Amino acid sequence: MNAAKSLAKGTRVIATGTLTERTYQAKDGQRRTSAELDVDELGASLRFAPVSVTHRPGHRDQSPAQAPDEGTAQ
């Protein structure tokens, strides 16, 4: 949802996540391979354009390493 509001078609992005390859047999009988990226983080690239970052009120910027463990008091 944030990506749709923040990025436009053709915007250069940087994505991190898990890359997997899948091999399958196409209808024409040929074996094909597809690459799929399960995206964890997505952001605009700063290589060719400046980017302005704004935080939504009430939301903290928290990476998984900074997030409190489940079951611990805050």
Automatic annotation (TrEMBL):
Domain of life: Bacteria
Keyword DNA-binding: yes
Protein name: Single-stranded DNA-binding protein
Organism listed in the record: Sinomonas flava
Keyword DNA-binding in annotation: yes
SUPFAM superfamilies documented for this protein: Nucleic acid-binding proteins (SSF50249)
One Pfam family recorded for the sequence: SSB
Region annotation Disordered: where it falls in the sequence: 50-74
Keyword list, A-Z: DNA-binding
